[in-house]
Design a protein that fits this description.
heterodimer; A: alpha+beta; six-stranded mixed β-barrel; 29 helices; 23 strands; elongated; B: alpha+beta; three-stranded antiparallel β-sheet; 4 helices; 5 strands; 58% helix; globular
């Protein structure tokens, strides 16, 4: 109660109500008068009486301060006072303020920018209810830890598990849409009914798929995106119950998905149309052993752990393996947290970048701390005066902290602008694999982050100098004009410079190793001549033109001829299955020397390229032995195959594979014996950086012309991929429009789409590393720049402070060269110590990073990189120190010594 | 500071209240002198520290103040005890007695060991 009353009165006092300071002054004056009166009564003379009374009252200033603190809310009042004072101080030295604010803005800006990316990508990758219960589901098989799930297995998993609230699968694809203007390709997904409910996505019009509606043989319904509904029908509600034609079949729109729905997974991407998986008219759908690229997601039942779900699903898989040993032996459901599935690959990259910007911010802080220390000479005097006038040590420290925090907040404000610009710039460079890149923006979380690091850094870089200054005997500072302080201060500055150098070097090493990695990757020979290769897809809907094997064969030959005639095309080949750096597909086989394996999981695997004779020429793959496929390799001639050097070495050792035979398992178990007629160079199927780490290395080439009749005809129509090589006078990207035109002329119902040059495909496979390299290089350059500003500042200060010493040296006979050397040596010594420390740190850190396999073809202690960045650092430091050093040589000894 | 015993805050408040109880209405200087005299000049009171303490007591409602004229015709601010102040003093004195008794038991040489 008493405290409450006191607090109220103080609050009034804070707003200038109640007792005022003038009243207190009157009271003090009356106190003095009473005391003087009494002293005179005791016989002192008036002067003596006044002096004694004043002394025993103590410092009036301090009393008034204590009284004022008691009568208002001192914290807030002091703060306001400090802020006003700091504002005056900072505006008095605009140069210092400018440099400090810019430095901090850079440090805070890059941090906020990166945080806004990390926040969206790593911290909130799943904008769905209870994201911790979401998992991605794959089928783990002997060669593929995250293999695709067959439709029959999916249904059994769905029915027999006890731990999943729901399990759903999807497969992304594309369709030819006709009947609404020009025939066009639309991207879509086949999916099971529970997919959207698992994610908590609700339609903005109509409904989602009903339970059971995803089964084979049900009504042809379709969900569409909000954008699609808007584009085609004007509004979401308008589209409901309308029909669209996909691959020649009619589907009725039953629902529209929200515009903000966005998800990108291995087997699912945000598209315009979504079909029930039962509508997929492929023979493989009903085959338990088929690998159709179907993957799943699931939501765990509430309260269950991932371990429990994994154990349950393993049990389910084991039962299936016992029931269907041929297809399911060795096959286990593989549950991965959805968050890891989405961000697992990008996570180490972003964390490295976050650490890098952390270093940049630290360097910025150190720089400003250095500037503050350098200013402390002038400040020591001023603060001494304030101390003498009654300011407590705590008040002085809080005053200094207010100043540094104001600098940091100004830096933070400016940093936010840098972040705004930097985020969008960084996202332009970002690889497409960056999940949720579209969601990156300056969210409240980012603003809070920026505000926190601004205030935090203000205290961080302000506290050290503040404690330093306040730690001196401030009275002495007043007496000596601050001279007693300088020794300790420059020692501190030296340490700060060393720290800056070390941090900068760590970043330089990181950037250096990344540049080396990328260089190494660019030098990697993918096994083919990537330049001038263009690949694209073709889709011809099911029609009489491809409804029999003979018609389809004839049609494909016509496509070949048409494209070959297009301007700029040097060679063309259809590619039916796998394609380097693109789709993959596998062939199962066994050797004649082996008994036929009891089930497919015991067979050997090879990447299968189903191509035409021109493929070798299109890709520029060197032939090593025998011959490649020719036009003569067509039915009824014996079936042949060409293998790559990896398959040859693995299965035939040093023997010549040419003439050897293989048994192929075939698409539907229709075994086929082929004779190897040639061996070619291994090509990088899995991406430049990733190829060697993939277990599946063996590759096999089969002639398209020997495809079995059953594989030619499909209800989906004909959908081959096509690869062409541009001739010398054309760029690969430039020939596509002519190919499109030629194809349109040949068959109006067919579409060619999805053109990509091999150069682009390779660049895409390196995009994440490139992103990391560019950003790391930028951050390292910033760190280097800031560190140089730091060295420059410290040396300028040193030279200014030691003018006398330099003058004496020169008076005693030191020539200008030796003075220059003395200053430069000082700087280089600091830098060397810093660089050595940084090197140790860098080795430690890069060793950790090396485990994340981010670097390629370069060891973490790569001497070439280490020496280069050391030399770079030294050269830059030497440049930064040259100006202050040169100034030292211009000291005029006579002048300095006379005036000093 | 001097070699005499310094007064600390809580105790000072109690001394002020007791002094005002004894003397009725009194101004700051008078209170200070009175405290020194009562302590036989053993206490060294920095007069300046008195005023924040007076202000605190007034804010808490233990004392009230008004301007008046001193015995030798000087204008001065006079403080006097309020009813709450009297209660505060009684409680404070009791607390102090208890503390004193406890400490005495610790410090007495003829402890019951």
């Amino acid at each position: 109660m008493r405290q409450l009353r006191a607090a109220w009165v103080r609050l009034l006092g804070f707003f200038g109500l109640g007792a005022t300071c003038t009243e207190f002054d009157a009271e003090l004056a009356s106190h003095l008068k009473l005391h003087i009166d009494e002293n005179i009564r005791r016989g002192m003379n008036p002067t003596q009486a006044r002096r004694e009374a004043t002394l025993s009252l103590g410092g009036v200033g301090k009393t008034r301060q204590a009284y004022r603190e008691r009568s208002g809310i001192p914290v807030v009042e002091n703060l306001l006072q400090d802020i006003r004072y700091a504002w005056r101080q900072l505006s008095k030295s605009p140069g210092f303020t400018f440099v400090a604010v810019i430095t901090l803005a850079i440090g805070i800006g890059v941090n906020s920018a990166l945080f806004s990316i990390v926040n969206a990508v790593l911290i909130h990758p799943l904008p769905y209810p209870e994201p911790d219960r979401l998992v991605a589901v794959h089928a783990s098989k002997p060669n593929f830890e995250e293999g695709s799930i067959s439709y029959p297995n999916f249904r059994d998993w769905q029915r027999e598990n006890h731990t999943l609230a729901a399990l759903a699968v999807a497969r992304s694809t594309s369709f030819t849409m006709s009947g609404m203007g020009d025939t066009e390709r639309v991207r879509g997904n086949y999916m099971s009914s529970d997919y959207f409910p698992i994610l908590g996505v609700r339609p903005i019009a109509g409904r989602l798929f009903a339970p059971g509606e995803d089964e084979i043989g049900r009504a042809s319904v379709v969900l569409v995106s909000a954008g699609f509904a808007q584009r085609k029908f004007g509004a979401a509600a308008e589209s409901i119950s309308k029909n669209i034609t996909l691959d020649g079949r009619t589907f009725t729109i039953v629902g529209v998905l929200p515009a903000n729905f966005n998800l990108s997974l291995r087997s699912f991407r945000t598209t315009d149309v979504y079909l029930p998986i039962g509508q997929w008219q492929t023979e493989g759908l009903t085959l338990r052993g088929a690998g159709l690229g179907i993957h799943g997601i699931a939501r765990l039942k509430p309260g269950l752990t991932l371990q429990q779900a994994r154990a349950d699903m393993s049990e389910v898989s084991r039962n299936l393996a016992a029931a269907y040993p041929n297809e399911d032996r060795g096959l286990v459901a593989n549950l991965v947290p959805l968050r890891r599935e989405m961000v697992g690959d990008i996570q180490p990259f972003l964390l490295i970048l976050l650490a890098a910007v952390g270093f940049v911010l630290l360097i910025a802080c150190v720089n400003v701390a250095n500037l503050l220390l350098a200013r402390s000479k002038a400040r020591a005097h001023e603060l001494g005066v304030r101390y003498a006038l009654g300011a407590s040590r705590g008040r002085i420290i809080s005053q200094l902290l207010t100043e540094s925090t104001m600098l940091a907040v100004a830096g933070g404000g400016l940093g936010l602008l840098i972040a705004l610009w930097g985020t969008s710039a960084a996202l332009k460079l970002a690889p497409t694999s960056l999940p949720r890149a579209g969601e990156v923006h300056l969210s409240p979380a980012v603003l809070i982050f920026t505000a926190t690091i601004s205030v935090g850094t203000g205290i961080l870089f302000g506290l050290l100098p503040a404690l330093r200054i306040a730690g001196y005997r401030l009275q002495d500072a007043l007496r000596e004009g601050g001279r007693g302080v300088s020794g300790a201060r420059s020692r501190m500055q030296n340490w700060l410079v060393i720290f800056e150098m070390a941090s900068a070097l760590v970043l330089l090493v990181g950037a250096g190793l990344m540049i080396r990695s990328l260089f190494a990757l660019s030098q990697v020979d993918p096994g083919f001549r990537a330049h001038k290769i263009l690949s694209f897809s073709m889709a011809a809907p099911y029609s009489p033109k491809n409804s029999t094997p003979a018609a389809a064969r004839a049609y494909v030959e016509q496509v070949d001829r048409t494209i070959a005639r297009a301007p700029g095309v040097q060679a063309v080949s259809i590619s039916w299955d796998a394609f380097p750096m693109g789709d993959d597909d596998e062939e199962l086989f066994w050797l004649p020397s082996e008994p036929k394996p009891a089930n497919s999981n015991d067979m050997h695997w090879a990447v299968r390229y189903r191509v035409e004779p021109e493929f070798l020429k299109v890709m520029g793959i060197p032939l090593k032995r025998g011959r490649f496929l020719t036009d003569a390799d067509r039915d009824p001639s014996p079936h042949v195959a060409v293998v790559d050097e990896m398959l040859a070495r693995k299965y035939f050792g040093t023997n010549d594979p040419v003439g050897q035979q293989l048994f192929l398992n075939g698409e539907n178990g229709d075994n086929e014996k082929v004779t190897i007629v040639g061996e070619v160079r291994h090509v990088m199927q899995w991406g430049v950086a990733e190829d060697s780490s993939n277990e599946l290395q063996a590759q096999i080439y089969l002639p398209l012309a020997q495809l079995t009749d059953g594989q030619w005809v499909s209800a989906d129509g004909l959908r081959p991929d096509i690869a062409v090589r541009a001739d010398d006078s054309h760029q690969a990207a430039a020939i596509f429009p002519d190919i499109q035109a030629a194809m349109r002329e040949m068959d109006r119902t067919a579409v060619v789409y999805g053109a990509e040059t091999m150069d682009e495909a390779i660049a895409k496979s390196l995009a994440t590393r490139r992103f990391l390299m560019i950003l790391l290089s930028i951050f390292a350059a910033l760190a280097l720049l800031l560190a140089c500003v730091g060295v420059y500042g410290v040396l300028s200060h040193l030279v200014g402070q030691r003018t006398q010493e330099i003058a004496i040296r020169m008076a005693l006979g030191a020539d200008r060269g030796s003075v220059l050397g003395w200053v430069m040596e000082h700087a280089l010594r600091l830098s060397l110590i810093g660089a050595a420390a940084g090197l140790a740190c860098a080795l430690l850190l890069t060793r950790v990073v090396a485990h994340a396999s981010i670097f390629y073809g370069v060891r973490f202690y790569d001497p070439w990189t280490l020496v280069t960045v050391m030399v770079l650092l030294m050269v830059v430091v030497a440049l930064a120190t040259y100006i202050p050093a040169k100034r030292a040589t211009r000291v005029d000894p006579m002048q300095t010594l006379r005036t000093g | 500071m001097g070699t005499k015993t310094d007064v600390w805050q809580g105790t000072l408040a109690l001394m002020i209240l007791k002094t005002l109880e004894m003397m009725g209405s009194q101004h700051g200087y008078g209170i200070a002198r009175r405290i020194e005299q009562t302590s036989d000049n053993l206490l060294k009171l920095n007069y300046g520290t008195l005023y924040p303490a007076l202000l605190k007591l007034e804010q808490e409602g233990a004392i009230s103040s008004e301007w008046g004229i001193s015995e030798n015709n000087r204008k001065a601010k006079f403080y006097k005890l309020t009813r709450a102040g009297k209660r505060h003093l009684a409680r404070g004195a009791q607390d102090w007695d208890t503390t004193k008794a406890i400490l005495a038991r610790f410090l007495s040489p003829a402890g019951e060991a």
